[in-house]
Amino acid sequence: MNALVRVEKLRKQFGGLTAVHDLDFSVAKGEIVALLGPNGSGKTTVINMISGAFPPTAGTILFDDKVISGLPAHRIAHHGVARTFQLVRVLPSLTVRQNIVSAVAFRREAIWGEQAETEAEQLLVDVGLSGRGHEMAQDLTYIDQKRMELARALAARPRFLLLDEWLSGLNPTELRVGIDLIVSLRDRGMTVLLVEHIMEAVRALCSRAVVMNVGKKIADGPTAQVLADRHVVSAYLGEGHA
Q1: 3-state class of 89 per DSSP?
Q2: pTM to 2 decimal places
Q3: How confident is the model over 173-226, as pLDDT tens digits?
Q4: DSSP helix/strand/coil, 192
Q5: Please, what is the Cα angle at 92 between 91 and 94, to 5 degrees?
Q6: Cβ neighbours around 46 below 10 Å, total
């Protein structure tokens, strides 16, 4: 497998709590891989370590065979890693377009002025916010703020995109649009690690799934096979369902 990302013996401790315990997995170029597990299993902590929000306590993260673990977030972003957040983060006093332009201006190959605004408008078209650039970010609905946040992540021109429950809260029509959008990103050559609880989306999008429980990996393989694994069923539903 031609791995773009490799996580090796990754560990994160907060005082006496081990949130992630010696985690190993990889993501191949062009894959959409699900990172699954019940609440509190350590998924977002993994995302935070890959993106540079948290330094690992131990272990190694490699991106395109270069060690990125422990680097500050802006340097990891410049390597080609972008993310969204469980709780949407916007710049509320700026317009939608200005939120995107701010990301364009701070990426590795930054652009400014009219060129940046033109690119921002195209990104808004890509995520379904065409013609909405003049609106204030704080006035968008929650779903549209999620779209804007994705456009801002894409503005960094990432090779690896971390989506932390980006599809949660969508109605069935919006979910289908969101799934199609993620497929289009893969078709454009992007690699995606998807943290998600909506199994319909996981089955539709992800060829592979890695499952965590209480900080440890309990399964890694083809999605259908993993979701039928009795240890995975037990982790989500309890022993009586396994």
Answers
A1: coil
A2: 0.88
A3: 888 888 998 998 899 889 999 999 999 999 999 999 999 999 999 999 999 999
A4: strand
A5: 75
A6: 29
